[in-house]
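Hello forum,

I keep getting stuck at the same step: I have a sequence, I want structure tokens, and every attempt I make locally crashes halfway through. Rather than fight my setup again tonight, could one of you with a working pipeline run this one for me? It's a single chain of 352 residues.
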Amino acid sequence: MKSLKTILALSFLYLTATTSLVSPYGLEPKDFYKDVAKTLVVSHNGKGDFKTIQAAMDSIPSGNKNWIKIYLKHGTYNEKIVIPKEKQKIIMQGNNASKVIIQYNDAGLANTSGPIRVDAEYFVAINITFKNTYTRMTPIIPYKAIKVAPSVILAADKAWFYGCSFISVQDTVADLLGRHYFINCYVVGAIDFIWGGGQSIYQNCVIYVKAVRSKEMMKEGGMLEGFITAQGRESEVDKSGFVFKNCLIQGDGKAYLGRAYRNYSRVVFYETNMSNVVVPRGWDAWDYNDQVHKFTYAEINCTGEGANKKGRVGWEKNLSAKDVKFLLEPKNFIDEDGWMATLPSSLVSIFS
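Reply #2:
Ran it on my machine without issues. Output:
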């Protein structure tokens, strides 16, 4: 019940203004300066060390082995940022996700479009909104206005997000590969908006489904049924998958919980509150109708109108208690080598 109250608080703070779909919610982790070797301050008004985030990033030496924090003062940063693989152990921090926004108008390429691409291991982001501004956030988005437009591209192992918002319509979070932990985050989209071959836990997050007008029913005003996830697990030994733990699904559109991006796709929702935005069938096989037995799609102890399993596909899995426990515990599913314990101690205390 405590976790559900936290989620409802997140939901309440959703901003419905069409000009700025961001969540102001971001917890205030204390003592983030601990274990940080250096702090670089970025500010538009020249009162920091740098005026742009990329300039701060470029100043960090390749092969860095100590935690460096890039602190972002309030503002909207219109930038296209790349964190190269040789620049590890970066903390990017704001103090309010509604007032620290990294955005860029860029669409069409799933692996390179958008405001930020992370190629380095050990990346941490705290209280920041990542937004792709290509598609204007009208109350109902025309299908023809949509292109692939990620707000973040994760192409590296060991990333951790806390109190962040991710705003776009299609392919919002490109969770391509590696292990990632999202806590108290807010994700907005309509089509495949959490996708890729990542191995990730989304905990206490709000998933907001945007309404899109179907291209087949433009004149009638019909709604497109989108997809929250498109997970790309490729074999039985592939460790990837998306786990949603104590989350909230809401919105003004309609969406399946997921569709199979690859033939061993794995997505699990645990104790998640689902509104009626969830399509009754729940899941879609996409191009793998003859391989549905290979998918791992499951819902455990979920609540809300959208969690009613009447009408669900017949091939949704009933996982054993052992399998559920393995997927839910970070130390089992995404932290088997103990990398999370090497984060700054103030962050470790949050999940331990």
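The first strand starts at residue 38 and ends at 42. If your local run keeps crashing, start a new thread with the error log.
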